[in-house]
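Recap from last week: sequence in, structure out.
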Amino acid sequence: MIGAHSGRILKFAFAGGLGFLCDSAITLSLTHFELVNPYLARALAFIAAVVLTWVLNRFVTFAGRRETVPLWRQFLRYVAAQIGGLTLNFVAYSLIVVIFGSTQFVIVMALMSGSALAMGINYLLAHFWVFKA
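Predicted structure tokens:
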């Protein structure tokens, strides 16, 4: 199964990597300048990352699997699918910040851990539900 999906998984991972950079930049900027607490920063950054990754996955990763549903409906499916990944992502992030503190290094490690846990579930939901053929 992985062999058949390897190209798509790589594209999905690349989109996710760009989403991670977006997420990290916003989270770190908001916390560095103490504009908001680390949890609100994470939530705001996640929203931006979801929009970016939906665009990339819609038009690059799953470009050949477009349904006839309107874009807004597909976007809502994508957002709904991210809830499972968001839950894993945010729980891991929060546990790491609570246990190790909120230094910039810890926040980056927490972001990476949460993102890695969420990637698998997000890919499966995108492949089998959001961008199904």
